[in-house]
Amino acid sequence: MPKAQKDNLFDLIKSLTKSEKRQFKLYVNRLGVNEDAKFMTLFGTIEKLNSYEESEILRSGIIKKSQLSNLKAHLYKQILISLRLNPSHQNIRIQIREQLDFATILYHKGLYNQSLKILDKAKNLAMQNEEKNIAYEIIELEKVIESQYITRSISTRADQLTLEAKQVSELNVLASKLSNLSLQLYGIFLKKGYVKNDEEYQLITKYFNEQLPEYDIEYLGFREKLWLNKAYLWYSFLIQDFRSCYKYALKWVDLFYENPEMITLNPVFFLRGKQYLLEALFYIKDVGRFKVTLQKLEKIVANKTFPKSENIESLVFLHLFSHKINLHFMEGSFEEGTPIVKEILSGIEAHKGTIDEHHVMMFYYKIACLYFGAGQNKLCIQYLERIISNKTLEMREDLLCFSRILNLVAHYEAGEDYHLDRLIKSTYKFLIKMEDLYQVQKEMIKFLRGLGDIYPHQLKTEFEKLYKKLKEFEDDPYERRSFLYLDILSWLESHITGKSIPQIIREKGLVEK
Fold first, then answer.
1. How far apart are CA 56 and CA 61, in angstroms?
2. Terminus-to-terminus CA distance in the chain, angstroms?
3. Which residue, of 93, 120, 400, 471, is most buried by count of CB atoms within 10 Å of its CB?
């Protein structure tokens, strides 16, 4: 099947809502442009296409191929201008930037006092809303005007502006260093994953301490505190200190609750904070706080005042449903959780333009685990096959690893023995290619390799041996995360005791309480 052509203009037009399309047409009319203008005809043609086909556009006779690139660029620009004027996109950040533009125009026209008056209001608004980068630009323009000695300002004005510039600049530098550190730690996580031994722990701790800038917490504003919490959160994730993850994710979220106007201005950061808070609670198995946090998230995103956009709606779907499945895992309510699959598949289809394929595969893995826990092994295998057969996507090795292990276990549970030898060989070949395997994975490889030689009456003894070996790693700081991908211990306990996996998990929950 040929790969669909990607085109930025096509994607932009398809992302427009009905009201945004109407706004664009009204904007074009105000320009005095005829509805039959070439760029409007191009807009109408692309709007009707289901996928981008340049040949289809050229066949319509709107324009020659040599002119198409320029016409598309012009249409793209006009749509963006229209969106900028749309009231739904008029947030504080855009308003401040607009005021700076107005002040710049007035300055160039020689209306210096008018320009300074607008700049002063815009600067106060920027500082109130933690837009310190724009605030610095405003102060720099104020300095340009004042340096020309044209306003006959009070004598202390130069000192005041110099001090403001210094303070804002220092905070901007600090925020930049903290955001750089946070981004670098996230990059390390994507490349290498969690630390696997003491040597890696020492290296990442040394890097974090060396890169962390000096700061006075009393001097920091919202933005600097946000990046500080992010940096500590990613460091905690890397070293698998999930209680610290909870601590810094909670600080991140509380920061927004202390500054509710920031939720409106930065809804994506707020949602990310909630996501990491739920993830940390899942890792430390705190069911009570997890349920309360999930309910709070559902309530706030359903509120009419919460910002709405296609990107935000897709993030809400991603985080809510990912953690709704996690709650079923924590409670052992696999059978009760299976109806959610239909909602997830509908959501994936509805948000396919904004959710990347990696997150889709993560959903498939969670769905497979849900069916496995519910004893519906054939459905589990179907979703795992979607991950294993995806050769074009670069996914984290740990996801691919546990998808294959669970696939093998699900085939065994489903009684599909005729596939087992082939699957054992292919799984083993895949796993030995992986670098830095966890000890848990190594023990699983040994067990799986010998599975074909075990007689039925020996199975319980072999399950008990494997359980004993893996149990040693349950509290190991570098091994325990393997059990979060696949609760292999509960599966083994199920075979040893004759109880169901949900029953085992529920009993564990009662003991932990």
1. 9
2. 53
3. 400
